[in-house]
Design brief:
Helix content is 45%, strand content 12%. By secondary structure, it is an alpha/beta fold. The protein has one domain (2-79): Response regulator (Rossmann fold). The chain has a 3-stranded parallel sheet with strand order 1-2-3, covered by helices on one side. The longest helix has 25 residues, at 81-105.
């Protein structure tokens, strides 16, 4: 959140550019991913940054809650190397789509 706000040493956007995507783990020290999603939703201009939630659990209630709080996608962390490779390739495709939408919106 400090990075997004340009605080605590992150104010130089040349060195610390504003992200076009946030990969968010639900299980973190301190705040959990749901707290961060809630903060993003409630704090313009940060609420438009696409968020992909990552977690080890694909539990339906977690997925629904993440989407209700504004997540754009929900990925279960892959356990094997092949699954990780496939997930990264899929993420690259999704990111290319997001970048093209950002470019169109900025015109």
């Amino acid at each position: 959140m400090a990075y997004l706000q340009g605080q605590d040493g992150f104010s130089d956007r040349t060195e610390f550019p504003y992200p076009i995507l946030v990969l968010l783990d639900l299980k973190m020290g301190g705040l959990d991913g749901f707290d961060v999603l809630r903060w993003l939703r409630d704090n313009p201009p940060h609420n438009y940054v696409p968020v992909i939630v990552l977690t080890v659990s694909g539990e339906v209630q977690l997925v629904k809650r993440a989407y209700a709080l504004g997540a754009r996608s929900f990925l279960t962390k892959p356990l094997g190397a092949n699954e990780l490779r496939n997930a990264v390739c899929g993420l690259q495709d999704w990111l290319a789509l997001v970048r093209s939408q950002v470019l169109l919106a900025s015109r």
